[in-house]
Design brief:
11% of the residues lie in helices and 60% in strands. The protein is built from one helix and nine strands; from the N terminus they run αβββββββββ.
Length: 205
């Protein structure tokens, strides 16, 4: 009985020593890759939803090869945008967007425009900063007084985002939009060009 107690006491004394030696010892056969491990911020199948608000500025109007003076004083309109991106890989994405904006005229009237399009783009990533470049093509609906027009539009944009959390990033967006108005009378066709500047929030999931 006394021998059993002696064995138990010796085990209790030696256990912390053995544990400390195991934690502090270096096993040359075990190597870690964590110091060299890195992964892409985006993977195929990742998605993001973007909400943006800002101002819309008429910039350039062309009719019959000549420039039209828009006679606007910016900022002259407002714009809101909802967009969705699906990532094919860490740097390329496709998606869709729905915008709505209004522009005031020199006659103190307002033109309303609703573009709906598909988009594709790529982005550069530098630490917590992300720089997407996007091209959009779609259909657009114009409404001015009692006149309505339905046609095509194209847009190119660039943005700069800061990834604040794993789910949210915030930034600035600038888009150049081409909005042609083509009618049966070619002399009345107008190619409108607009610039929009927006504050944007992206939700990543």
């Amino acid at each position: 009985m006394r021998k059993a107690w002696v064995i138990v006491i010796l085990l209790l004394i030696s256990f912390p020593v053995l544990l400390a030696a195991q934690q502090g010892g270096d096993d040359p056969s075990v190597e870690t890759d964590w110091d060299y491990y890195s992964t892409d911020l985006y993977m195929a199948g990742d998605q993001s939803f973007i909400i943006s608000l800002g101002v819309a500025l008429p910039v350039l109007f062309i009719q019959n090869g000549g420039l039209i003076d828009p006679q606007f004083t910016p900022p002259v309109g407002g714009i809101g945008s909802l967009a969705y991106n699906y990532y094919l890989n860490p740097h390329f994405y496709v998606g869709a967007e729905l915008n709505g904006f209004f522009i005031h005229t020199i006659q103190e009237n307002t033109m309303f425009v609703i573009p709906l399009g598909i988009r594709a783009g790529t982005q550069l990533i530098a630490g917590p900063f992300e720089f997407p470049f996007t091209l959009t093509l779609g259909m657009i609906w114009h409404r001015y007084l009692d006149w309505t027009y339905f046609g095509l539009y194209a847009k190119a944009g660039v943005a700069a985002y800061f990834r604040a959390t794993t789910q949210w990033s915030f930034g600035l967006v600038a888009n150049w939009g081409w909005l042609p108005q083509w009618t049966n009378d070619s002399s009345r066709n107008v190619d409108g060009n607009f610039l929009d500047l927006m504050l944007s929030a992206r939700y990543h999931f």
